[in-house]
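Technical annex, item 7. During the second reporting period the consortium partners agreed on a shared format for inverse folding records so that results from different sites could be compared directly. Each record opens with the tokenized structure and is followed by the designed sequence. A conforming record, contributed by the partner at site C, is shown below for reference.
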């Protein structure tokens, strides 16, 4: 290659490096560690922002990297979309599709990342865990679909060995720790080498970046305000979704009981409750019933 390779990252907190910072609050993250492993001249650009959703990634972050004609772009988004009251899978897919489409047609190789299963490491009430897991599955399904459509490099997070080891996760259990970020960088490095990129082996840190004292301070300063902000946004929806989820579970149990006794319920009713969920349009009660089904 006659010129330096340009590697850009757009997305949310998982892309910006939350969980891997120094004492001054500067984020590093897996993108930084991956950039360090390249064995060729490299320009590294990270415009990701904590809290970003797919709409912001498409309309605000994407133009900032396209002007640099990047060769390699990581698009890491979806976690904040699914945590919003008005989560709409169709809107998320449209935003991500257009983002990846523009990058591919500009000549970039795109990197995508599946979300981990937060219920594996974050204690949640049973019904809320079911709803969260379902939303994560929807986001990952869309991400896989688009990776196939555009030939993107896809990191299947859940298939990584020991991905849920505690030392790989930040104190908030939602973001990777420094070792976790390096683990993701190393995993992406393996995939990129298969695509012909000159990436060396990852150099792992001997310890994570935060002491127990620092972790407590971080949670009080950052984690607690984030939790209350999301709680006020999601609480009304979670109450209704949990009620609908409980009704759905009771219906499934009733259906199995009737089936064993040879008295199947009408097909139309089964399709309504267990078939593909209709797309969400708003945070109204009807859209929340759609997510629970």
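Designed sequence (site C submission):
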């Amino acid at each position: 290659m006659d010129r330096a390779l340009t590697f850009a990252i757009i997305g949310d907190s998982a892309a910006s490096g939350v969980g891997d910072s120094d004492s001054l609050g500067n984020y590093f993250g897996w993108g930084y560690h991956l950039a360090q492993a390249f064995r060729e001249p490299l320009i590294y650009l990270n415009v990701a922002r904590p809290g970003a959703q797919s709409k912001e990634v498409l309309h605000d972050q994407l133009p900032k990297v396209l002007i640099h004609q990047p060769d390699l772009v990581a698009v890491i988004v979806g976690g904040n979309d699914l945590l919003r009251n008005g989560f709409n899978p169709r809107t998320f897919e449209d935003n991500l599709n257009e983002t990846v489409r523009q990058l591919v047609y500009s000549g970039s190789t795109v990197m995508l990342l599946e979300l981990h299963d937060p219920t594996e490491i974050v204690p949640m009430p049973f019904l809320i865990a079911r709803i969260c897991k379902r939303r994560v599955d929807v986001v990952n399904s869309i991400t896989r679909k688009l990776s196939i459509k555009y030939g993107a490099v896809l990191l299947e997070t859940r298939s990584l060995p020991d991905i849920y080891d505690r030392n790989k996760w930040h104190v908030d259990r939602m973001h990777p720790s420094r070792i976790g970020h390096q683990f993701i960088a190393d995993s992406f490095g393996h995939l990129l080498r298969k695509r012909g990129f000159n990436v060396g082996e990852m150099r792992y840190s001997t310890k994570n970046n935060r002491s127990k004292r620092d972790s407590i301070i971080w949670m009080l300063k950052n984690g607690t305000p984030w939790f209350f902000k999301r709680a006020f946004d999601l609480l009304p929806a979670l109450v209704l979704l949990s009620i609908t989820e409980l009704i759905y579970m009771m219906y499934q149990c009733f259906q199995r009981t009737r089936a064993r006794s040879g008295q199947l319920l009408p097909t139309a009713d089964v399709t309504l409750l267990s078939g593909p969920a209709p797309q969400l349009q708003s945070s109204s009660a009807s859209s929340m019933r759609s997510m629970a089904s």
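Confidence is low (pLDDT under 50) at residues 267-293. The first strand starts at residue 5 and ends at 11. All partners now use this format for quarterly exchanges.
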